[in-house]
Write a structure and sequence with these properties.
Mean pLDDT: 92
CATH class of one domain: Alpha Beta
CATH topology of one domain: D-Maltodextrin-Binding Protein, domain 2
Strand content: 5-15%
Oligomer: single chain
Strand order of the largest sheet: 7-6-8-5-9-11
Radius of gyration: 20 Å
CATH superfamily of one domain: Bacterial extracellular solute-binding protein, family 7
Bound molecules: calcium ion
Distance between the termini: 45 Å
Helix content: 40-55%
Largest sheet: 6 strands, mixed
Shape: globular
Order of helices and strands: HEHEHEHHEEEHEHEHEEHHEHHH
Length: 359
Amino acid sequence: MQRRDFIKQIGMIGAATAGTSLAAPSVASRKTRWKMVTAWPKNFPGLGTGAEFLASLIGDMSDGELTLKVYGANELVPPFEAFDAVSRGTAQMGHASAYYWKGKQPAAQFFSAMPFGLTAQEMNAWLYHGGGMTLWREIYEPFGLIPAAAGNTGVQMAGWFNKEVNSVRDLEGLKMRIPGLGGEVLRRAGGVPVSLPGGEIFTALQSGAIDATEWVGPYNDLAFGLHKAAKYYYYPGWHEPGAVLETFINRDAFAALPGRLQAVVMNACRVANQDVLSDLTAKNNDALQTLVTQHKVSLRKLPDEVLIQLRELTRQAVEEIATSSEASRKVHHALTVFRDKVTKWHDISERAYLNARAL
Ligand code: CA
């Protein structure tokens, strides 16, 4: 298949610059090499491999004109410095999740996941066709970065605990690794949220430095061996119902690319966004069975009463963050309006269907 047709077929999205032309004569033999820094351990299932997939896709789709070398966490910069590294041009692309940057701009958190917010399908609808992407670009603009969605985890697990969670009181004093808005909700429940990069979670949990942790879902959690350090595995992931993996691109590096390669980069992100979700969805169930049958993990549902209280605490936490900056207010408002609208549709489509299938 001609590359041009392929790009058309997967849904050409507008590159940032006007005048992008797929028919432009090729800029012969100009090879560009980029660095991609990530917040994940090198080749970590689903996340690290998602970054590798995106990089190889860009290489393939550009016929090798633009190639990326992927760096795992700490290979070039520490995981939580990826944003700054791309902002200042040490690397041209980064792969992480937006809530890691809440210290720079609180509104960034909304582009990872909002507790009790959008599912993967809804988030993609908001980003691509509901105005979300425009807002995301606006808040990364002062950092000289262009964001793109590059993967979604789907609904996560609530996490790993060494004691039962029967009421919100059981969260009091609990030191738990839980980033972003979910962490703010835990704080309101009397817990102590801790932000740790993925590669440090197992050791922290095993040594007792933290009491509990969330990570992603069965596939990723099994890979980290979290079942060896905690007994109870709770669901559902109220705090991250469809967490977005992001990529961010140095604006000057992007602007220096011919329009054809800009389109390759943005469309490759779109392919990767879908691929990570498909990958994790396909593998989570098998991993869950392994955890339950082979490793005798105790699978528990958070009691409805706990979820209802967490939802109320979420409302308070999110509204407070929404007042912390004009960008947060804008993003929170747009997201909430979209959620309320899409809920009406999904109540009679997704939810009604899943209920029907379970009758
Ligand atoms: Ca998570």
